[in-house]
Amino acid sequence: MRRWNGWGDESTSMNLGEGARAMLAQRLGPGQPGQDAKREDLLPRIPASRLLEHPLIQHDASSRLAVGLGESYADWIRKRFGQLPPVPDGVAFPESGEQVRTLLDLAHSQRWIVIPFAGGTSVSGHLDCPLSERPILSVNLTRMNRLLHLDKTSLLATFGAGTPGQQVEAQLRAQGYTLGHFPQSFEYSTVGGWVVTRSSGQQSLRYGRIEQLFAGGRMETPVGPLVLPTLPAASAGPDLREIVLGSEGRFGILTEVTVRISPLPEHESFHALFLPDWDSAEAAVRALAQRRLPLSMLRLSNRIETETNLTLAGHERLIGLLQRYLAWRGCGANKCLLMLGVTADSATARHALGEARRELRRHGAVYIGPAMGSKWAVNRFKGPYLRNTLWDQGYSVDTIETAVDWPQVKSLMHAMEQAGREAFARFGTPVHAFTHLSHVYPQGSSIYSQYVWPTAPGGFAPNFERWQTLKRAVAEQIAAHGGTVSHQHGVGRDHATHLVDEKGPLGMATLAGLCRHFDPHGIMNPGKLLQDGGPWAD
Amino acid sequence: MRRWNGWGDESTSMNLGEGARAMLAQRLGPGQPGQDAKREDLLPRIPASRLLEHPLIQHDASSRLAVGLGESYADWIRKRFGQLPPVPDGVAFPESGEQVRTLLDLAHSQRWIVIPFAGGTSVSGHLDCPLSERPILSVNLTRMNRLLHLDKTSLLATFGAGTPGQQVEAQLRAQGYTLGHFPQSFEYSTVGGWVVTRSSGQQSLRYGRIEQLFAGGRMETPVGPLVLPTLPAASAGPDLREIVLGSEGRFGILTEVTVRISPLPEHESFHALFLPDWDSAEAAVRALAQRRLPLSMLRLSNRIETETNLTLAGHERLIGLLQRYLAWRGCGANKCLLMLGVTADSATARHALGEARRELRRHGAVYIGPAMGSKWAVNRFKGPYLRNTLWDQGYSVDTIETAVDWPQVKSLMHAMEQAGREAFARFGTPVHAFTHLSHVYPQGSSIYSQYVWPTAPGGFAPNFERWQTLKRAVAEQIAAHGGTVSHQHGVGRDHATHLVDEKGPLGMATLAGLCRHFDPHGIMNPGKLLQDGGPWAD
């Protein structure tokens, strides 16, 4: 059973070892766990539905609460502290594109607000409901979760837009194929959600981002269907796929998604290496990316994250031995951990790994073999479960990510961590901030910073204020360094303020014009991408 | 000096050997060369300019004629037969983005029609002028041809949008870099033109299409500037770059283009192989593309093109020996020529070529070494010069291209050739039609068909009619097979009729909406992409 107020399935927990607890206590002071609100207490507080009875729409409080919040820190503390925001008035569970069409026609004619839902994993406020006079309908796509067509010659697979990652892969694997799109939210996030938020998976170095994987499909918009045919490439004017990608439910609801798949690889392995310090490590991954070696993953932790990961790993004695060995090989206190993935036919994998190790040696890397890499692969989707564990110990976690060209990577990484520390310093609260680069490109890199801090006493308000202060401070640094509002989590409501820094005023007007074009009554997911549709509860 | 009514520089000619002449005579009958119109006769027929005097605008007939026509077959016969269409009333030669801004503001306020010009190599009618009451201003960007900024860390280079391919490469090579974008029009076509028509280069397998190379830039639109920042990747809403790509002058004028460059490769070589027949050849290139071997080019000629190329090569005795050797190795009358390019560091090149040859052997390929490949590389931009030579011998040439998913490739290729044959049969005219795949993708391939036929006596009208019949017949086959309106030549006016088959009615309305958004007075390049802005001279 999926947790209603935390990440993932109730049967799965991640434990914190002694060393990790000690590190947290030392850096952040002892955590003070609070009392969580109960789902049963929230449900009766959900107001009566303002939606008409309709055979496709359910009005029960339980369904409505389940689609009303996502996985952002704000959503998390709303649930944990029982700070109930507006939730949809009803939830539809369409099973076909035709039913989505019916629902949209109804909503369009009645001026209902429509908020699409699928995996519910947004960390950017994509599910926020405005304080509106108009009824709000959630369209929950989770029943549209099947492989509809497989073309083995062109390597194309068509899925219902609500198919979650696990089911995408299970249905493809049964036939010998993979999509290869593995965001950390993979267990729950869906192929349609990936497209409309421009998601990126852990092995994007091989498979590409969802932009490269999305071959076509169908979007129902308030003014009619937009059908995107599959083509290997075209010079036939602006690419309408690229308008659907990142549309975040503003233009319509994606119902079918055709993706570019691959035969299951002959070989896949993950390897750990250490580099002596940040400068050599950054130069090394940049060189690998710019040489375009056929690797599938490069994930570089900075010094603090490296230390944190080694502490989290447990096995104190073994890790101690490793640290001494690494120090002897030149990777001491400033060392940085690089996880490298190779996914290819056997001959290409051998070539790529050999060339990568040669290149990395030139930058002082020490290779410690595949064991740590294999362990990473086993736990690759478990990271978010730690958030549950930390909360129970009295600590909060959030992540902020961006991407920027190489000359700004190091300074922006430092600025993001430092802005976080200064933000919490205003509240006299310590924070543990650390960073990795998980998607490297010839041109630059993503930057993914994580922040852990002691949850404040006093419930929702003080914790929400701390989080807003953090987000604002880090976003300002990102904008000042020319980074994107988001590399992989989308804009939602949480980043909409800053989008103008990236798109410019004419760019923002263009997006607003597209909203009016597809959605003349302004019913689709207001407040996401653009700052419209309010007021809001907070 | 560039030819005014043919391809390329006057100092360069391609000769046809005896064998090629014989083949043409045998297949098409003897060509009957006609008398070309003279530039001096056309110039006095250009009407007086309707544009105001302005320091940035020139009104002389010579400048106006030079920007009034492109390189489509229709443009070609207009020039050759002296069928003068409307040409712009004046030509501006801006040297900066500010001057482009000034010109657009002026045109916007005066409701002048604006047609951007740079390389003048369009083969899709991008330069056509409507029969309009409104004055027409050509904005010629050829003076904006410099490398403006080079970022060696992020491998980004910013050029004036009017920089032609040769100057892009020359300026990069001087610093040890390459863009790697080599369309056949490379000598004249420009980086800005590539972006707004979604161009593809011969080595797109390594470097990507211009979509992948275009990192950002600046477009001046009638309602203000659209600035596209460079970012390695982003999930921040719809990608506005993808609206500029393929915009064909409808939304504004691109002034600066930042592209993703590469260090000059350690190794580059081209290799010729033969496969026994089409089915084995298609399966082979599909396997190579789907294995994602790091090759830089795969160019597969069908049986008729293979035969034609071998005849065009001259060296009858040598080719005869080669044919006998190939037949002995299993590549007889149905053989297909594959040109394969490898561009990489030496180790990767060795790996890729080795693996590719192994894969190709499994499909019955015979490798004949790099000599023919090197010869191809030397002449890689000379193909269009043959058009001059053929014209002088009394023959016309045109090319039609598309891309489609793999299951349709073979049948569409046959249908394109057959539709051409049937189109000319209506006029009792023979045609020599042959095809290659020049851009292969895991999902499908481009298809590039060439047609050679005897130029009809009687001047412009009968030849224009034949050409229109050909284009229409082939376009219908492309649409019926689900192919794109164009893989690499853009839409222009020539393919605008068929764009709705690909974009659908809501897609077309979206493009029209974007036109109105950026260009509320409808001054920008009318009739291109969308069928508006007429009437037209033909």
Structure description:
The structure is a homodimer of 538-residue chains. Chain A is built from 19 helices and 18 strands. In chain A, helix 11 (278-291) packs antiparallel against helix 14. Chain A has 538 residues and is α+β, with helices and mostly antiparallel strands. The longest helix of chain A has 21 residues, at 460-480. In chain A, a hairpin with a 4-residue loop joins strand 5 (147-151) and strand 6. Chain A starts with 17 loop residues before the first helix and ends in a 20-residue tail after the last helix. Chain A has three domains: 38-264 and 495-538, Uridine Diphospho-n-acetylenolpyruvylglucosamine Reductase, domain 3, CATH 3.30.465; 267-378, Alpha-Beta Plaits (2-Layer Sandwich), CATH 3.30.70; 385-480, 2-Layer Sandwich (GMP Synthetase, Chain A, domain 3). In chain A, the strands form four sheets. In chain A, strands 15-12-14-13-17-18-16 form a seven-stranded antiparallel beta sheet, sandwiched between helices. In chain A, strands 5-6-10-8-9 form a five-stranded antiparallel beta sheet. Chain A is globular and about 70 Å long. Chains A and B meet through strand 9, helix 10, strand 11, helix 11 and helix 14 of A and strand 9, helix 10, strand 11, helix 14 and strand 16 of B.
